[in-house]
Amino acid sequence: MKVAVIGSGAMGCLYGGYLARLGVDVWLYDVWPEHVRAMNDLGLTIVDQDGEHVIPVKATLDVAEIGIADLVIIFVKSTQTARAVEQVRDCIGPATLVLTLQNGLGNIEAIAAHVDSERVLAGVTSQGCTLLGPGKIRHAGVGKTHIGPVAGTAPAGMEEVVRIFNEAGLETEVSHNAVGMIWTKLVTNVGVNALTAITGLQNGDLLKYPELVEIMDAAVSEVEQVAAAKGIMLEVDNPKEHVHSVCRATAANRSSMLQDVSNRRQTEIVSINGAIVREAERLNINVPYNRVLANLVKVIEKTY
Ligand code: NAD
Q: Which letter does DSSP use for residue 14 in this model?
């Protein structure tokens, strides 16, 4: 199986590195020249609790080198998905499967603009990674991956993808509610990311302030309303309590959005709270908390 990872940052390198270590034919595509050079010259270094592991990989800045892949994994930030899929159209043949495990909404639609939706796989991952520098990532948290079809029936080849992920050490299960799982993860991102980015607080500290819990719960309620109107089945019974429990379980974490604003990088706000605002507008639902959170983070980005 030939695998092309599109966006080989923290997560792309984790999945691509684990598959390459198994002997799968993996290409890591990225637009960052120093990173691609470092991986080709020195290998990919994955730092985890057992130490540093160097994995020889093939990285490229040029999609023409890759050719048609059997599996394309999109791991750019969700704001870049449409552009990235457009760039890599030459890697996508009539039987290629395209997988997204990104956070936020809009990724499936951006992929399906170029690929028959029957060959689009989507899901969520509880793995956690950070990019340490060119050619080097830290694998900070181990967790399950869930993958499923977005168009009803599972495409030929999906089981094989799940099999090689598991064989590579990336524990993976099939989900028949991939879109519901993405929305369930979105619930947490809606409740946590913008509030941490605006306040500078770690996840667990949000719960210490009743004023923030009020905003968190209201924003999560709005997602529940929009999801219900769209007929999306969330995977948790009590989304507000679920978000509180994630805050407790990840108390010392600085969310990705807080890290993004601290480093003056573009955030994924338009795919998280911003996406809820857009979905709600289409459905004539009022989501003032998500609108305010999205606008505040957009203003933080404008002040960089
Ligand atoms: P990242 O910023 O580390 O990596 C993104 C990579 O994409 C970068 O190396 C960047 O150079 C590259 N890129 C940007 N534009 C590109 C383009 N047009 N074509 C090719 N490459 C391009 O991001 P990440 O942390 O790996 O996150 C990727 C996705 O996974 C996000 O949606 C994120 O929310 C999600 N996610 C991340 C984690 C995590 O722990 N990091 C966990 C779960 C989900």
A: H
